[in-house]
């Protein structure tokens, strides 16, 4: 007869143990993807040029969506500067944010201390 498996629930207020792993996997995928973009595309290609190469109608749609919901300030001070940066820079930035999330949410196991008899 099999013993019932006991599943330990995380303590109230503690971070789920899966969250740091999710952040780590996202960080790895984003950083590897940014290296691939930097290696395969021309180094001077901007994010706007790369996205336009995929779909020529997206700039107008993005501009109308941002201006309609967030306003001209966000478009001019956030979206346009991101679009003129190299295509690999956004995945690097998001990957580094995920690395920070993985490190921040990781709770180390209790240290193992051995007490030696004196």
Summarize the structure.
The chain is mostly helical.
Description:
The protein has 118 residues and is mainly alpha-helical. It folds into 2 domains: 17-42 and 88-107; 46-85, no CATH class. Helices cover 61% and strands 0% of the residues. It has 5 helices and no strands. It has helices at residues 18-40, 47-54, 58-69, 72-83, 89-105. α1 (18-40) packs antiparallel against α5. The longest helix is centred in the N-terminal third of the chain and has 23 residues, at 18-40. 8% of the residues are buried. The mean pLDDT is 86.
Topology (elements, then pairings):
Elements lengths: L17 H23 L6 H8 L3 H12 L2 H12 L5 H17 L13
Arithmetic mean pLDDT:
86
Please report the total strand number as a whole number.
0
Strand content: under 5%
Shape: elongated
Number of helices: 5
Please, how many domains? 2
What class would the helix/strand composition place it in?
A: mainly alpha
Low-confidence stretches: none
* Element order: H for helix, E for strand: HHHHH
Distance between the amino and carboxyl termini:
45 Å
Spatial extent as radius of gyration: 22 Å
* Helix content percent band: 55-70%
Sketch the major β-sheet: none
Could you name the key traits of this structure?
mainly alpha; 118 residues; 5 helices; 61% helix
């Amino acid at each position: 007869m099999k013993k019932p498996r006991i599943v330990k629930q995380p303590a109230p207020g503690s971070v789920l143990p899966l969250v740091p792993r999710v952040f780590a996997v996202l960080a790895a995928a984003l950083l590897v993807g940014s290296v691939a973009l930097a290696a395969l595309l021309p180094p001077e290609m901007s994010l706007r040029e790369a996205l336009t190469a995929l779909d020529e109608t997206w700039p107008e749609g993005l501009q109308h969506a941002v201006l309609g919901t967030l306003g001209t300030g966000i478009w001019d001070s956030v979206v346009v500067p991101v679009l003129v940066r190299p295509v690999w820079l956004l995945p690097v930035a998001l990957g580094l944010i995920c690395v920070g999330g993985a490190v921040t949410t990781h709770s180390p196991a209790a240290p193992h201390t051995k007490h030696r008899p004196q």
